[in-house]
Each structure stands twice: as structure tokens, then as C-alpha cells.
Design goal:
By secondary structure, this protein is of the alpha+beta class. 20% of the residues lie in helices and 37% in strands. Strands 11-12-7-13 form a 4-stranded antiparallel beta sheet, with helices on one face. The protein has a 3-stranded antiparallel beta sheet with strand order 1-6-5. The protein has a 3-stranded antiparallel beta sheet with strand order 2-3-4, covered by helices on one side.
Length: 184
């Protein structure tokens, strides 16, 4: 039995879960999420807990068991507390601003780069610490939007300029090793 899959998903107060066969919809203070799962697992709602069990012991079904439970847990956590990804902007003159919900990046290009938020995503930018926060209920969408922002100007290995995740270790390279032997 899957160690993750056998654990029940506890539904906190203020969150409602509706299970219709393989379709699970979760509604809470941060919004509503719906997902349809692949056949091979049984999803039940009992005593304010979501229980996930598998139909057989085939390797594919075993893999789906824990994954399904983890996805349901992420949905419940997302609509109750939400998810946040923090990115840092590093470089002289590099900055980020949020105006009318649209994130605008000034990262060394000849033009500003506007990034409109998709449905369910909110941006916050702190000009003092040069941090960007991507906030939303859908964990997958928050991660994808953060990755798209990072891709606008990924950190370069020589000076570390660019956009990177908070706490991300950037692998640095040594610059030129000038030997002092040039043409005279």
C-alpha cells in the first residue's frame, strides 16, 4: 500500500469537497478548483475526509494512488491557504513593478516586459527588496507562471544578474584569466 496514498485528506473548516466518481471539485475562501482523475483509483468522501484507494496492484495503478492523493491535498491546501512562489530580481537597474495587476519587468532590455496575470493568479512586487510574489490557489499554475517570469531573464553565471527563485543557488563561473600577454 502506498504510504502517501493511504493517508486521508482532512478537509478544514470553510472548505467544501464534492466527489462525483473521478471528478473532484474543491471550494474554499481562495476560490474553486476542479480536476478529473484517471480511472484506477476510487475516491470517497467520508467524515470530512477524502479517502483514496486503488482498484488493483498493477504498477501503473500503484503510481496513480499516491499521486491522486497528493493532487487532492494540494487542491484543498490551495483553496484554504493558497500557494506563493517568490522570485528575486538581481542586477543594476533591474526592477519589477505591479500596476493594475499587470507585472512589468525592467531587466536590461530596450523595452519593459509586461506580464498579465492569468485567471486565479495575483502578483505582488516589493521594490525595496526587489522580490516578486506569485500568489494563487492552483499549485501547478503558480509554479508555471513563476517559471515563465524567470525565463524572461534567467540568471547568468558570471555576475548572477537576472531573475531567480528565492534561495536558489546560482552556479558561478570564473571570468577571464588574464595572463597579461597581449600584443604590443
Amino acid at each position: 500500500m502506498s504510504r502517501i496514498g493511504r493517508l486521508p485528506v482532512v478537509v478544514p473548516a470553510g472548505v467544501t469537497v464534492d466527489v462525483e466518481g473521478l471528478k473532484v471539485s474543491v471550494k474554499g475562501p481562495n476560490g474553486k478548483l476542479e480536476k478529473e482523475f484517471i480511472p484506477g483509483v476510487d475516491i470517497k468522501l467520508e467524515n470530512n475526509q477524502v479517502l483514496v484507494s486503488r482498484e488493483n496492484d498493477q504498477p501503473k495503478t500503484k503510481a496513480l494512488h499516491g499521486t491522486t492523493r497528493a493532487l487532492i491535498q494540494s487542491m484543498v491546501t490551495g483553496v484554504s491557504t493558497g500557494f506563493t512562489k517568490v522570485l528575486e530580481v538581481e542586477g543594476v537597474g533591474y526592477r519589477a513593478e505591479v500596476e493594475n495587476g499587470v507585472l512589468t519587468l525592467y531587466v536590461g532590455y530596450s523595452h519593459p516586459v509586461p506580464i498579465p496575470p492569468p485567471d486565479g493568479i495575483k502578483f505582488e512586487a516589493d521594490t525595496r527588496t526587489r522580490q516578486i510574489r506569485v500568489i494563487g490557489a492552483d499549485k501547478e499554475l503558480v509554479g508555471q507562471v513563476a517559471a515563465n517570469i524567470r525565463e524572461v531573464r534567467p540568471p547568468e553565471p558570471y555576475k548572477g544578474k537576472g531573475i531567480h527563485y528565492l534561495g536558489e543557488k546560482i552556479r558561478r563561473k570564473a571570468g577571464k584569466s588574464g595572463k597579461g600577454k597581449g600584443k604590443k
